[in-house]
Amino acid sequence: MSNLAVIGVGMAQVKSSSGKSLTELFVQAAKDAVEDSGVSKLDAMYVGNMMSGFLQNQEHLGSLMASALGREGMPTYKVEAACASGGVAMNAGVKAALSGLDKIVLVGGVEKMSDNSTPKVTAGLMMAEDKLKVATTGVTFVGLNAMIAREYMLKYNVHHEEIAQFPVLCHGNALDNPKAQFHKKISVDDVLQSSLVADPLRLFDCSAMGDGAAALVLAPMDEAKKLTDSPVEVCASTVATDALSLYQRKELTVFEGSRRAAGEAFARAHLTPKDIDVVEIHDAFSVLGIMAIEDLGFADKGSGSELLREGQCSRDGKLPINTFGGLKARGHPVGASGVYQIAELTLQLSNRAEKCQVPNASVGLSQSVGGIGSTVAVHILRRP
Amino acid sequence: MSNLAVIGVGMAQVKSSSGKSLTELFVQAAKDAVEDSGVSKLDAMYVGNMMSGFLQNQEHLGSLMASALGREGMPTYKVEAACASGGVAMNAGVKAALSGLDKIVLVGGVEKMSDNSTPKVTAGLMMAEDKLKVATTGVTFVGLNAMIAREYMLKYNVHHEEIAQFPVLCHGNALDNPKAQFHKKISVDDVLQSSLVADPLRLFDCSAMGDGAAALVLAPMDEAKKLTDSPVEVCASTVATDALSLYQRKELTVFEGSRRAAGEAFARAHLTPKDIDVVEIHDAFSVLGIMAIEDLGFADKGSGSELLREGQCSRDGKLPINTFGGLKARGHPVGASGVYQIAELTLQLSNRAEKCQVPNASVGLSQSVGGIGSTVAVHILRRP
């Protein structure tokens, strides 16, 4: 898959309340990505989004956004895979670019969560789960993740203060990212003393609601090299699923979808976890950040938090993670998060990450999760 | 694009009230398609659907359906493009199969419209339009199509009784299709005397609400020939968009999206309208059926209804249209309709259409429309 590159990115600052419409959010990110890439014509556009129908009573985002961009004509697609919508849209865009039918492909993601009440958005997020068999029980998404956190802590004898290192890392990194939702340094104590949301998860264990949009432009590598001095190669793009619901799983503390998607991605890229210089992880909840370190192959089960304790996951460590703040602090505008991750990796690997730059990063991996690990998209990018 | 084939299809009967869940509807169609194809493993799955978030508070259909099929693991995608969701999902599936990343791809579509009130479904359908600029005016989708119908009749001096031939044709054909929603012969007088919905459109000018699901299996032609004696070649798969809303268009009675998508499809297939033996058209409203005949290149503007008057569009005519009943009479379960069309063409081109069979049909075309012609998917299939 070495003939495809990301050649431009655009990101809106994630905001708790942007005051912008879905269209305004998306169009600005898309225009920025197109301008950054230097292309004039787009051949296709993929829009990742989860909840626009439920929250804004707006579907048909493909045509809506193409039209708002003044680029009607091209084929467009809304791709939905719960919180992995952005990562999965990227994968669909990669397939289009590899099909021979589309050359220059824009992949974007957008979500607007601010113009609805918290109960409504909470209900919206539960659309990732089986409505008839799980959502109707009244359990929320944070509730499901709390069950995982409790099981993880018991099974591996890991304490909350160890897991809480993850949001602390993210908030630290986000201080240098002007596009981040939160610019607020926090400590492990802050996490442990924040209000309880669903035991054992507390407020600072959880990503917040936000409005955001991100976009990037894909091009064949030969075209890319004409357009930019710093194309970033897409080495692998994979999506894997698991049984949808926790009650269907044998094991709560491993996401088989992550293992499958990462395993396939490493195989396709002819790389191993040791080759990765920077990682963007789907830390919707702190425990998911720790589990991802393990499921992606960077640590044994139960020992993910040790890497944080040893300082390995800082930007100057061996395995920098969530270098722009991750879902927790850059923000988690659901359908856009997977695209933010890849845009951020692109900046890292083209030496354009400014204050967030990881020195000498040449290979990066992103992981985007939908539902309770039910869908996982993994991308591996490389400085050519 | 001659190395790809449809090798199996499955269709639920469209029903005004199926009593089945989204999952039950989809799973049965998908299982039927897989059984029909003879494949054991699927490499990817694309699910077309428009309104599950709004109507059932259910998203993440990719993982949900893979899990319900006992086929978790593979990559899955929900694709949304309003009423063209099924046709656009097919196009995304074709791109996946051509990308070299997936070999055996299931494409399905599903919509359940029965467990909500008519006003709620009407609001759901308006999600295809710009919520902030058009939907908030209170106009409905049938209202927008009524404006087109009025303009069409005035501009080309075509009378309602001529347009009304389209639903009459569809209802006639559906009598022989056991999967059709309606088995009721109607006359032009029945259309003209049915209740007024939005002037000039009357009840029998409009497709109805229904529950349904359809699915098909794609495979590379060399694999296909091992699995079945009657693979049907996918000669072309295109999607084109137009400005989203009518107020942005210069011309109301031409769908540029149809022209673009059809033009590209004919070019890729190295075929012309004269080569087409059977057509499945997106006749959500009678006037759209007539306009499609013209925009797809089968008649000059304003003269589409003449083909019907001359009997050319019957199954024994020169250009058989909507041979299983079309959206009007087979039914229009929104996100599934585009997949039904391609499944029906597959049956025609593999000589398995039974009482609906068009004698000696060897090339077929389908047109799936999202919004007011804002997104159009066109497929050309051929008996190899």
Could you name the key traits of this structure?
homodimer, 384 residues, alpha/beta, 9-stranded mixed beta sheet, two-stranded antiparallel ribbon, 15 helices, 38% helix, globular
Structural account:
Two copies of one chain form a homodimer. Chain A has 384 residues and is α/β, with parallel strands linked by helices. Chain A contains 15 helices and eleven strands. Chain A has helices at 22-37, 52-56, 61-68, 85-98, 118-125, 141-156, 160-163, 165-174, 188-193, 221-227, 256-269, 286-295, 304-309, 326-329, 334-349, and strands spanning 4-11, 44-48, 76-80, 105-111, 196-198, 201-202, 212-220, 232-241, 278-280, 363-370, 375-382. In chain A, helix 4 crosses helix 15 (334-349). The longest helix of chain A has 16 residues, at 22-37. Chain A is globular, with a radius of gyration of 19 Å.
Brief overview:
2 copies of one chain form a homodimer. By secondary structure, chain A is α/β, with parallel strands linked by helices.
SSE layout:
2 copies of one chain form a homodimer.
Chain A: E1 4-11, H1 22-37, E2 44-48, H2 52-56, H3 61-68, E3 76-80, H4 85-98, E4 105-111, H5 118-125, H6 141-156, H7 160-163, H8 165-174, H9 188-193, E5 196-198, E6 201-202, E7 212-220, H10 221-227, E8 232-241, H11 256-269, E9 278-280, H12 286-295, H13 304-309, H14 326-329, H15 334-349, E10 363-370, E11 375-382
Parallel strand pairs in A: 2-3, 2-4, 9-10
Antiparallel strand pairs in A: 1-7, 1-8, 4-7, 5-6, 8-11, 10-11
Helix pairs in contact in A: 4-15
